[in-house]
Specification:
The chain has three domains: 19-219, P-loop containing nucleotide triphosphate hydrolases (Rossmann fold, 3-Layer(aba) Sandwich); 225-292, Helicase, Ruva Protein, domain 3, CATH 1.10.8.60; 295-373, Arc Repressor Mutant, subunit A (Orthogonal Bundle). It contains 17 helices and nine strands. It has helices at 20-31, 46-60, 77-92, 96-107, 133-141, 143-151, 171-182, 197-205, 225-238, 245-254, 259-272, 279-292, 294-302, 306-316, 325-330, 336-348, 364-373; strands at residues 36-39, 64-70, 113-116, 124-127, 154-160, 188-194, 216-219, 352-355, 358-361. Helix 7 links the parallel strand 5 and strand 6. Helix 9 crosses helix 10 (245-254), helix 11 packs across helix 12 (279-292) and helix 14 packs across helix 17 (364-373). The chain is globular and about 70 Å long. Bound molecules: adenosine-5'-triphosphate and magnesium ion.
């Protein structure tokens, strides 16, 4: 039988749990043509949430077309424009001949040429020369708006890992251009999301930046524990196995209610269980989870100084008073000024983060690994 737990992929259908409030807020924004910005640490469920909200909107309103673009692998402006044009065309036209038609109608001036992949009915590449730059790129940025007006639809452009534009050459100029064009769009709205909280906040919350006050900013919260506990117990029983509520809760706690790791750990426990989950199975599965990541964690440590590692060890053991002489001495952290610097470095490296004044590991399995190793 297939495991009921899914990780590392966008979750849909029955595998998608809860997030009712966030869905309501996003669908509300989508339907009112407001721009949204969604920020959360890695693997908390941004991509799944946006897809889910899009599906919900489309069940009652087919006039809104969603276009998804992932900037994860897009490293230059040039690449951005190409992918952007392709995704806009694909998401607004049904079939191959309609794509070609639309490219001709809406991008004719750029004299684009087509090339097709192994599956021409579903995939194509566009190439065009961005020579008379300014006009051309604006033409591409205006593409969704032009199509939306012509087809009497509304287009919602969803851009994942948006913070990547902060790394482009002339990043600020690029942002200024996007904002200056997008602000005149009335038939296109934007949902921009990303996982590097500090970079996202720099883009959207800093007054001097072009995207300041661009839309409704949502900071994704973790899904409540009880939804996961219920989901795990149900998923086991639906597949002929069983886990009691205590173990289910323990499983969720071990990975600090981190959605990705809950699903991964639940999957390992499920594979290791034939009938009922036992304490031994749970422990063994936690170890497996940690071991799978060992190489990655060793690499992270290789790039840190001894005091930074000592700080992480202290944090993994739930030390909190980093200014007390006792903790500073016990973990050889130097002065409390030093601790401030260490925190800054670790936050920049996206190993830890601070919310509501408390510092925590972004990757709860890394904490478990440190506890085991030291
Ligand atoms: N609502 C949910 N219900 C169940 N599982 C979820 C949910 N949201 C996230 N997950 C779990 O977390 C994993 C990561 O989800 P997703 O890819 O949507 O997150 P993300 O924030 O976009 O991640 P990344 O930072 O890697 O882009 C999923 O594969 C799934 O295991
Ligand atoms: Mg994602």
């Amino acid at each position: 039988m297939k495991s009921p737990f899914v990780y590392g992929k966008v979750v849909t259908g029955n595998s998608f749990i809860n997030r009712t409030e966030e869905i309501a807020r996003l669908t509300g924004n989508f339907q009112n043509y407001l721009n949204s910005i969604l920020i959360s640490p890695r693997r908390w469920g941004k991509s799944s949430l946006v897809r889910k909200a899009a599906t919900v909107v489309n069940t009652s309103n087919s006039n809104i077309r969603f276009c998804f673009l992932d900037m994860f692998r897009i490293r230059t402006e040039e690449e951005f424009y190409k992918r952007y044009a392709i995704e806009i065309i694909k998401s607004t036209s049904g079939k191959l001949d309609e794509w070609i038609e639309n490219v001709k109608n809406f991008m004719g001036r750029l004299s684009p040429s087509f090339s097709f992949g192994t599956d021409p009915a579903n995939d194509f590449q566009l190439s065009f020369d961005l020579s008379s730059r300014e006009l051309d790129v604006e033409e591409i940025l205006n593409l969704p708006e032009k199509i939306a007006i012509k087809k009497k639809i509304h287009i919602l452009v969803c851009i994942d890992e948006f913070q990547n534009i902060g790394n482009y050459k002339d990043a600020l100029e690029f942002q200024k251009l996007l904002r200056s064009v997008w602000q005149y769009h009335h038939n296109t709205s934007y949902c921009l999301y990303g996982s590097k909280r500090h970079m996202m906040m720099e883009l959207f919350e800093k007054q001097s930046m072009p995207f300041y006050k661009f839309g409704d900013i949502l900071f994704l919260q973790k899904i409540k524990k009880r939804h996961f506990i219920e989901f795990i117990t149900d998923s086991f029983s639906k597949t002929g196995k069983s886990i009691n509520k205590n173990y289910s809760e323990n499983l969720v706690d071990r990975v600090e209610t981190h959605p990705y790791y809950i699903q991964q750990l639940a999957h390992i426990v499920w594979v290791n269980t034939t009938g009922n989950v036992t304490e031994d199975i749970l422990e063994e599965s936690v170890n497996e989870l940690i071991e799978q990541n060992t190489i990655l964690y060793q690499q992270i440590l290789n790039e840190l100084s001894y005091t930074q590692i000592n700080f992480l060890i202290a944090l993994s053991r739930s030390e909190t008073s980093f200014n007390s002489a006792e903790v500073l001495q016990k973990y050889a952290l130097g002065t409390s000024g030093n601790v401030t610097k260490i925190k800054k470095v670790l936050i920049n490296k996206e190993i830890v983060d601070i919310t509501n004044g408390s510092i925590f590991f972004l990757d709860p399995a890394f904490r478990l690994w440190l506890l085991k190793m030291f």
